[in-house]
Amino acid sequence: MTPVMRSRGYLPHLEAELAIYFVTFRLADSLPRDLLAQLQKERLVLEGARRAGTQRAGDRVRQEKLRALLRKAERWLDCGLGHCYMRDPRIARIVADALWHFEGARYRVRAWCVMPNHAHVVFSPLGGHTLEAIVHSWKSFSALAANRLLRRSGGFWQREYFDHLIRHEASLQRIVRYVEENPEKAGLRNWPWVGREYFVAPASSRH
Known about the structure:
The chain is built from five helices and seven strands. It has a domain at about 10-30 and about 85-200: Transposase IS200-like (Alpha-Beta Plaits, 2-Layer Sandwich), CATH 3.30.70.1290. The chain is globular. Strand 1 and strand 2 (about 15) form a beta hairpin. The protein is of the alpha+beta class.
């Protein structure tokens, strides 16, 4: 099926049936404010051009600038900015459990990683379940449970998330490898919250 364009997020996004997506969502305080402001500024300009139906050479330059900012954001995330709530294994487990709760029913997980201040997932929606609805369910469930455990209120996740429609097998393998190697490259040794499957420890061994 031909991918369908949508506008939510930092870049115009594509959705398609039988698709594989790479999604990153992050804690509310995980990126510097000036970087968030730059991302928002570039997104608004591109969104205005899209709504006006214009395709200028400068728009392509801005898209490349925005993609460079997104790569910079990935590097910032690995620096561990913010509260990094998922360093607490109880919070990391909440997020991991959310990612796997409807695995096989609403989506198929191909690779995943819960980092101290963000999460990566490579997955395929199943049936009529959409990318946006799936990510929303992960974020809303985990935010509610984590805030309750931490005895806090307010935003837990950043509202926007990064997503990419994977089109080729080579890209899939590269992205899966990036997800699996993310903890080690970020200096996290023996980090358990990563892989292609999810083995839940017995209740007696949980923290």
